[in-house]
Amino acid sequence: MTHSLFHKIWTPHAVIARQHGPSLLYIDRHIVHEGSFHAFNQLRARNLSLRQPAQVFGVPDHYVPTTGRRAQDAATAEIGKMITQFDHNMNWGGIPHFPLSDQRQGIVHVVGPEQGITLPGMTLVCSDSHTSTHGALGAIAFGIGQSESMHVMATQTLWQIKPRVMRIRVDGTPGIGISAKDIILAIIAKIGAAGAVGYAIEYAGSAITALDMDGRLTVCNMSIEAGARLGMIAPDDTVYGYLHDKPQAPKGPSWDKALAHWKTLRSEDEASFDLEVTLDARDIKPMVTWGTSPDAGCGIDEVVPDPSGFKDAQARAGAQQALDYMGLVPGTRLTDIAIDQVFIGSCTNSRLRDLRDAARVLKGRQAKVPGIVVPGSGLIKAQAEAEGLDKIFTDAGLQWRSAGCSMCAAMNGDIGKPGERIASTSNRNFMGRQGPGARTHLMSPAMAAAAAVNGKLTDVRTLLGAHA
Q: Among 202, 285, 294, 365, which lies 20 to 30 A Cα-Cα from 447?
């Protein structure tokens, strides 16, 4: 097991390694957002400063407005003050950061890889659960709390219990219309929302290595929705090519040295794992969730399940509670469920590939329901506009916004109404996640676009002419 990708990164970062209990890890990169004011308040209260400010990066994203680029455009005056305070904290700490007015601003888990802040072999933390996203570049990346964030800023280290390691292999060639979002939703549906609790996941197999960088980021992003501490994929030529021109990536001889090291970051043939799971990509259908947990999902050609068919009393009660909240009846065909609006965005699905997938479905068509499309960064927004994707969205009747977490976190004024049903590319469908009483169905960008066109959950393959 010491020859696994995870252990090749964990071991050299363990300043104090313990067989039992937490080990002290050196942290290479720390990303903070505007919710980090708690950690900065703790630093000041203890008269502490940042140990390595150059290894901390700041990006406002959770609360920022998507209809403007000023603190004054925020949903409330209080949120506007948070954004202003963020800039003050960054300047106080001497932290490299991308303020709201900077085109490089965006969602932390989009900006990190995009800027080359995230590199193979690194340890990276952020006070957000979806920090697992960065594992797609071959890094150990996980979310932390505000007190832990303060500890990292003050010491550049963090106490952590070493997780067990699970390998999930997805082999085979997925069918037309099947995306990385479908793959990870199928994985979570198979192992459950608690299936990877206590584990670090390494994703492997031909279907994973065939994914482009955007797809890999999507898969690792939702590792936390299976209960995992983190998710990761071994770096390869796809990763090296992606990073080569990134601002924070090594240059010249430093690049050659880094690349030589990165090429050693893979699990050896003799590596063993605490648990292994396999899926056949050919069996994966376009996925959609019906309940209030990311594991409550199935193929779009199926029906809403009957809670009476669940194995135990707790599962039956949970499924019934979910259906009551979602306003669904067992046996209803998923393709008969009408939606009220669409959200395309989030740290899961706001990258260029995601926007292209959605635009491919929407081009020349009209949405029957309103919706918003939110790019993951200002740079992605500019590139999408250069390709004319924004015009496809607006011509279809959807709103084209500026970068931010938006309706995924529903903290910035972009929220669903009570009882409203949302086709969403987000990562969570918990009760009230996208607004009090709002009902969320998770799916891929292409599936969300198809739902917008028909005003109901739709098998995107029927619009791509690929349904058997």
A: 202
Q: Is residue 345 part of a domain?
A: yes
Q: Which domain, by its residues, includes 209?
A: 5-276
Picking from 42, 29, 41, the residue whose alpha carbon sits closest to that of residue 135 is: 29
At 133, which CATH number? 3.30.499.10
Task: Identify the three-state secondary structure at position 128.
Answer: coil
Using one digit for the tens of pLDDT, what is the confidence trace for 274-314? 999 999 999 999 999 999 999 999 999 999 999 999 989 99
Could you tell me if 303 and 268 lie in one domain? no
Q: Which amino acid is at 148?
A: E
Residue 424 shares a structural domain with residue 364 = yes
CB atoms within 10 A of CB 164: 15
Listing DSSP states for 358-402 in one string gives HHHHHTT---SS-EEE--SBHHHHHHHHHTTHHHHHHHHT-EE--
Q: Average pLDDT, stretch 221-241?
A: 98
Residue 14 has pLDDT above 70, yes or no: yes
Residue (of 296, 299, 341) closest to 323 by Cα position: 296
- Encode pLDDT of 21-53 as tens digits: 999 999 999 999 999 999 999 999 999 999 999
Length of the chain: 468
How many domains would you assign to the chain? 2
